[in-house]
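To whoever is on call:

I kicked off a structure prediction for a single chain this morning and the downstream step that reads the tokens threw a length-mismatch warning. I double-checked the sequence; it's 306 residues and nothing unusual in it as far as I can see. Pasting both halves so you can look.
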Amino acid sequence: MRLLTTGLALTGVLLLNGCSTINNNKGGRYDNPTARHSRWDGRQPTAASLVAYLNESSRQVQALSCQDVTLDCRDHNQSGSAAGRMDCQKPRNFRLTAKVVGQPLVDIGSNEQEFWFWLGKADPHVYHCTHEAASRGGIRMPLPFQPDMVLAGLGVADHDPNGQYDVRIQAKTIELIEPARSPEGKPVQKVTIFQRAQATGHQPQVMAHVLRDMQGQEICRATVTEVVHDPRTGVELPRRIQFAWPARQLEMKMKLDGVRVVAPDAQLAASLYSRRNLSSQPGFDLERAQSDSPTGQVQRVTNPPR
């Protein structure tokens, strides 16, 4: 169970930058399955054209909801699965909850101010941190959860057209490489890998999303193994994704069924993208590296000690 819980909590770093918008159909029923993004051209790609391709996909959606997420985790002879629900809304709202045999297993979330994760019986603490503190670096993370990457992976995050990118063109693939920093403050690279040729059928144009250290070693990889296409726009939609953390020898498969594009709802967002329902659990502030109030109530730290 610990293996599965860890894998689910690591989902935040699995869904790396650049996955396109997800469909709003159930069980693989899609119109026009061979439709393709009209603007793809891998002959002489530039950072600007690749970023524009990703941003054209991301602007198609403001919010997503999926009530049928299946996750399977494996480490050698250990394996497990869980069913969950996922919601997200631009720019930073995200929530993933999962259960096993009806029992809550994990709760991962983010809103405009902060992000958090809770691992159920594996660790009762609600780990939380403000986005501002995480952006400064120096945060020791029990798990490499990065909420901004989750939203980028779901296609509801935009890429900065004026950002610093490198492009690596190979015979069959194209890599869009973006410098970033881990919550600990270490420099890393976020890499989006495209198939250079025009993809056909259920092949992905956006093949994988990788987080690398500065020595070129992979920290984690998300490989898109099956896609479908939005019948209205032709945007590529990931349906099955395989994740791997080489150093942890951990793998996970994710299947998304019944994901639907929804209109942003401010009233729903106020309750959905909040950790208030976890207030009975002990909290732990990652910025202060200290537990919250001993009463178990989640305590908001306005001016954390330095």
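Update from on-call: the warning came from a stale cache, not from the record. Cleared it. Sanity check on the structure: The longest strand covers residues 63-75.
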